[in-house]
Amino acid sequence: MTDIIRARIQEISELTSRIKSIRLVPEAGDKLPTAAPGAHIQVQLPDGGARDYSLVSFDNGAGPPESYTIAVQLEPKGQGGSRYMHELAVGDRVSFAPPKNSFPLEIAPAVFLAGGIGVTPLISMAAALQAANRPFTFHYTGRTASAMAYVAEVRERFNAVLHCDDDPQTALDLAAIIQAVTPEQHLYLCGPRGMIEAAKTAAEQAGIPSARIHFELFDSGAAESGDTAFEVEILSSGQVFTIPPDKTIVEVLEAAGVDVMYDCQRGDCGICQVDVISGTPDHRDVVLSETERDSGKVMQICVSRAKSPRLVLDI
Ligand code: FES
Fold first, then answer.
1. Which of 103, 121, 187, 247 could make an SS bond with 54 (beta carbons 3.0 to 4.6 A apart)?
2. Mean pLDDT (whole number) for 38-56
3. Using a 6 Å CB cutoff, which residues line ligand 1?
4. What's the whole-model pTM score?
């Protein structure tokens, strides 16, 4: 079993009106492992849940770190995790699982594209490439500069190009960014689902091999307004479950004792993929290609839902 790390909040900074950075130092006797660029920690919440937060490091220091920094964006319509994190004060204690990295960095030339709070893992990656003396370009997009965290730092440190929706001079030109990716460069995408889907599709159409396209979704698989209940039938047992609007297929099946595999629960790792025997999936992941989506034969059950009243899944 994974050892849980206990830490104390050493410092809190308001980065924007909705984003706070939180610096964590270990309790006496606990140690912070070295975390690879792109890693995240899973902070435990009082209700028994947990939330993933990428580690932000401009240092890329060698050896075990003395502190971890995360940045938490308040999500008023979320399930309460960000609210809890925003109410914490200096001196409060939190626990988390050791860092895990599902968004690893290749030490090679790169193009980074960050959307909103998705900038956090890309900061650590850019710092690592800078330390390794590898070239990269850094694009950072958001609604408006005042709502974006670490703007001054990424401009100063990484010469980042800012793209703000409210400024036509700088608005994101995805096609231009993708066209400029050279055969040596890896493309790293982190942000909301719409941005990742659009960038991934553009990259695939531009012929960039999938091995050089890396992405992490900065969204929860939270329910969308208008979601309705649907049924899932398990092929192996014939059991039928109702998936309510506020629960995922994974959550319902796991609570019922069905053995399901999953990891990220955001729709970006691909681990929970299952074959669809019948019914029409409502895809909400960023893993599947357009062809796979259109086939309707596979789906990610951690986030995707149904457009038909029932799905029969090969589980
Ligand atoms: S658990 Fe990662 S895509 Fe579903």
1. 121
2. 92
3. 262-265, 267-272, 285, 287, 300, 302
4. 0.83
On the question of pLDDT at 99 being above 70, the answer is: yes
Q: Is the pLDDT of residue 170 over 50?
A: yes
Q: Which one-letter DSSP state was computed for residue 160?
A: P
Q: What is the pLDDT of residue 180?
A: 96
- Taking the CA of residue 261 as reference, the ligand 1 atom at the shortest distance is 1
Q: Which atom of ligand 1 is nearest to the CA of 302?
A: 4
Residue 313, both tokens: 């899944």
Convert the pLDDT of each residue in 56-98 to its tens digit.
999 866 667 999 999 999 987 666 788 999 999 999 999 999 9
The answer for residues whose C-beta is within 8 angstroms of residue 303's C-beta and 6 or more apart is 221, 248, 265, 266, 267, 284, 285
Integer angstrom CA distances of residue 79 from 14, 50, 76, 220, 226: 21, 11, 8, 10, 17
Could you tell me the domains of the chain? Answer: 5-100 (2.40.30.10), 110-217 (3.40.50.80), 230-313 (3.10.20.30)
Torsion of Cα atoms, 11 then 17 then 19 then 22, to 10°:
10
Cβ count near 88 (within 10 Å): 16
In this prediction, what percent of the chain has a pLDDT beyond 70? Answer: 95
Q: Determine which residue's CA is closest to atom 3 belonging to ligand 1.
A: 267
